[in-house]
Amino acid sequence: MGIRRRSGVLGFLGAQLDFDECGLVQRGAWDAELPDEATANGVKKEKVEQEEEAVEEEEGTKRSAGLNVLTGCGMMDGTEISEAISTAIHLYKHNIRPDFYAPNIDVCASINHYTGCLESSDIPRNALVEAARIARSCIRPICKCKVCEYALLIIPGGAGVIRTLSDFSSAGNDCIVHPELRNIITEFRTQCKPIGTMCMASVLIAKVLPGSTVTLGKTSPKEQWPYASAIEKVKKMGAKVTMQNVHGVTYCKKHNLYSTPAWLDAHANYSDVHEGIGKMIAMIKKNMK
């Protein structure tokens, strides 16, 4: 079988890959080392921002920017991918550019998403590096975030929010939220900017902002709402929890918060979740100053 040399999927990073006749990458076929993380992400993000600015100039529009906090990649140990993508799509529909950030820390636990089993590895997975898969490499460490540059904050769900962004999965109502994210949430509240959460991400808001009103879906039937036990734990934090279906959105006027159940509903499908997130983003946009 012959070998062909050409730029592959990582060509934008300057790497040359060897492919066989079936289009499969050959092992050990690198011509050059990849640039370091800072260079790769910096070049990619700068290029994307320049392209978007050119489009905005051509269309005579100027998009607001939305801060999207991710943590890893995958519903069992990171960010729920479809929630993150649905969020980005709906933000763009409302002329809001999503900018992605994630903590530069190791993922608390790595789960095999095919078997559902815990993976053991000597090499830990990094939440920022994994989240870059969702953000198409256009992502920054959360420590680099400047709240003044953003009109709203969105936090998609997934187990990463209760394992890496907090320890809610083990500590419950006594959990601790990642300090950098806590500061961001607090600053958004201080500046009266809207915050949107979905799925289990709503527990972060309940912990950081006392007296919040959020939704975590419903308490029954159990087979449809398998994470209902989180509701009582969040109530112990001092939060008020409203019952919503997958298409529902809860608005907390006190803190300018919006939340929707998303995949907390085990009977939901991609269309349901996409619709619920879209409704939440539309409400946020309508109420933005």
From TrEMBL:
Stretches for region Disordered: 36-62
Alphabetical list of Gene3D superfamilies matching this protein: 3.40.50.880
InterPro entries: Class_I_gatase-like
Acidic residues composition bias: residue spans: 49-59
Protein name, entry field: ES1 protein homolog, mitochondrial-like
Annotated gene: LOC105363722
